[in-house]
Structures are given as C-alpha cells and as structure tokens.
C-alpha cells in the first residue's frame, strides 16, 4: 500500500513540474509588445495604442519596440502629454496631425523624439 501512495506522490510531482514548464513556455512566447505592455502604466499603454495607430507597418512598430525601454517609456509619456493638450474645436483633426508628426519624428529614432514630436494642440485657439 505504501508503494501506491509513493507512486501517487511521484505523479503529483510530475504533473506540477509539467504545469510549471508549460507556464514558462507560454511566458517565452510573448511578443515584444506584450512583454513591454506588462511594464507600462495606463497612460503609457494609451500612448502605445496611439503610436500603433500612427505607424503604418508592423516593421515600424517592431523597430520602436527594439529601442531601450527607458527611451520607449519617455516617448510614450511625451505622446500622452501632447495628446492631453488636444481638446476643444477640431481635437480629432489635431490628433490626426500629431500622428503624422509622431511618425516623422520616429524616423530619426528616439534620441530626439521629445524635441521633434510636438503637437500643435497647445497653440492658438483651443
């Protein structure tokens, strides 16, 4: 009888190990975007969503995602702070214009992104 109990415990150990291995495989299969999203706050996630809309291809997004994480977060914070200025008349139009600005500024990488990617939302009539 004791050998049956021992087999039972061994099976439980194997099942537990298999489950843990499966969880690690799933973890390893995350895309760079999914991995980054886990590290972002809500505003940065909104900035990333806006950025995805602005970029016309997955390769442009992947290039962005391969940048240094601190630069990515800084860029996403900047995007959100600029978007917060887009209120009032023609806010949607100004946001669309800002998408083009963001896309152009990313062409030069993230080093000068915050200097080059300013919206026109805070200027003139709101």
Automatic annotation (TrEMBL):
List the residue ranges of the region (Disordered).
1-42
- Bias category Basic and acidic residues: which stretches? 30-42
One GO term describing the cellular component: cell outer membrane
User: Where in the cell is the protein located?
Assistant: Cell outer membrane
Cite the record's Polar residues compositional bias ranges.
1-13
Tagged with keyword Iron: no
What membrane topology is given? Lipid-anchor
Keywords of this entry: Cell outer membrane, Lipoprotein, Membrane, Palmitate, Plasmid, Signal
Q: Which residues cross the membrane?
A: none
The record describes the protein's role as: An outer membrane protein that may participate in pathogenesis. Some human Lyme disease patients have antibodies against this protein. The Mlp proteins probably undergo intragenic recombination, generating new alleles.
Q: Which family does it belong to?
A: Belongs to the Multicopy lipoprotein (Mlp) family.
Protein name as catalogued: MlpL-like protein, lipoprotein
């Amino acid at each position: 009888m004791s050998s049956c109990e021992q087999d039972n415990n061994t099976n439980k150990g194997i099942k537990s190990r298999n489950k843990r291995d499966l969880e690690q495989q799933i973890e390893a299969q995350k895309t760079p975007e999914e991995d980054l999203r886990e590290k972002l706050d809500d505003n940065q996630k909104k900035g990333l969503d806006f950025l995805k809309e602005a970029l016309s291809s997955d390769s442009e997004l992947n290039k962005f995602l391969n940048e240094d994480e601190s630069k990515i977060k800084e860029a996403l914070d900047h995007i959100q702070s600029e978007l917060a200025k887009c209120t009032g008349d023609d806010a949607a139009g100004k946001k669309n214009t800002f998408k083009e600005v963001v896309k152009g500024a990313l062409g030069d990488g993230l080093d000068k992104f915050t200097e080059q990617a300013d919206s026109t939302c805070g200027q003139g009539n709101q």
